[in-house]
Amino acid sequence: MLDLKQIGASEFRQLKQAQDRGQLSHAYLLLSSDEVEALNTAYWLICYVNCTGEKKPDGTCPACRRILAGNHPDVFLIDTEENKQSIAIDQIRPLKQELAKSPLEGDRRYFVINHAQKLTLPAANALLNLLEEPAAPVVTFLIANNGGQILPTIKSRTQIINFSQQAASSKDRLLLANGMSQEEVDQVKSSQEVDQAVKFFYQELREHDSLAIVSAHQLAGLVKKQKQGTKAWEKYVWILLKKWGEKDLEKGDCQEAANFLADLMRVDQMWQSNVGFLNNLDYLALKWQQ
C-alpha cells in the first residue's frame, strides 16, 4: 500500500482545483526529484475524485483503500519490473485495450506511469499514441525525475507540474526539471560564456557547417576549464542544446528539429554510458555535416 505521509501540498491543491472546476487535463507530467512524493500526489488526487467519505479524500473509505492498495478496477499503475532498468513496450500495450473499456465505478479511468524517464523509445512512442486519444475518459499521470529524458512530443501533450520550484528562477526551473540537482544548478550559475558557445555550436549544427567540429573542441575546452563541477557543466550543455532544439520545434521547423532532438537523446545516453564529452560533441558535429 502507498504511504501518503508525503505529498506535494501545493501541487495537490493545483490538481484539486482543476478537478473542482471540471478542468482536469487528460494527461499530466509530474516532475520531482522525489518521485515518491509525485506518485503519492497523483494517487491522492485519484482518491479525492473517487472517495465516498464525507471529508474527501479520507483515505479510509472502501474506494480509497482499494486505490491505495492497487486493487481498484479503474486505476492502472505501470512501473519498472523487478530486476529491469526500463519500461518496455509490452507494459504499455495493454493500456490501449483498457481505452476501449468504460469505467466501472466512476466517470473516468486513471493510468499512472512511474519512473516515466525509463520508458524505452518504442514504449514512449506507444504511449504517445495513447495520449492522442482525446475521446477516451482517461487521465494519465507520468511520474519522472528528469524531464530531459521524456520525448518532447510526449511533453507537448501533457500539462507539466514541477514540484516545489515555485520560488526558483526560470533557468533553475529548467535545469531542475531536466534532472539536475540543486547542487549542480548552483555550480553552473555563471554561465554566460558557455551559453554563447552552445548557441554558436547549435547554429552551426543546424546549418550543417563544417566549422562545427572546431566549435565542438572549443566548447569542450571551455567546459573543462570551469573551476568546479565538470559533470554538471557537461549536463548543462546537453540541456541547453535540447532547449534550442525544442524552440525550433515549437516554431514549426518540425522535421529537422525532431531529428536533432533524437540525435541528442542518443548522445545523452552515450554520455551516461561514459562515452567522453568531447567524443559526443564530435559525433554531433560530424553527423550534422552530412
What's the structural blueprint in terms of helices and strands?
Layout: H1 9-20, E1 27-31, H2 35-50, H3 62-69, E2 75-78, H4 89-99, E3 109-113, H5 121-131, E4 138-144, H6 152-155, E5 159-162, H7 170-177, H8 182-187, H9 192-206, H10 212-224, H11 230-250, H12 254-272, H13 277-287
Parallel strand pairs: 1-4, 1-5, 2-3, 3-4
Helix pairs in contact: 1-2, 2-3, 4-5, 9-10, 9-11, 10-13, 11-12, 12-13
State the distance separating the first and last CA atoms: 53 Å
CATH architecture of the largest domain: 3-Layer(aba) Sandwich
User: What integer value in Å does the Rg equal?
Assistant: 21 Å
Question: What would you give as the CATH superfamily of the largest domain?
Answer: P-loop containing nucleotide triphosphate hydrolases
CATH topology of the largest domain: Rossmann fold
Strand content range: 5-15%
Give the low-confidence spans.
none
CATH class of the largest domain: Alpha Beta
The largest beta-sheet arranges its strands as 2-3-4-1-5
Which structural class should the secondary elements be placed in?
Answer: alpha/beta
InterPro entries: DNA_Rep/Repair_Clamp_Loader, P-loop_NTPase
GO biological process, one term: DNA-templated DNA replication
Protein name: DNA polymerase III subunit delta
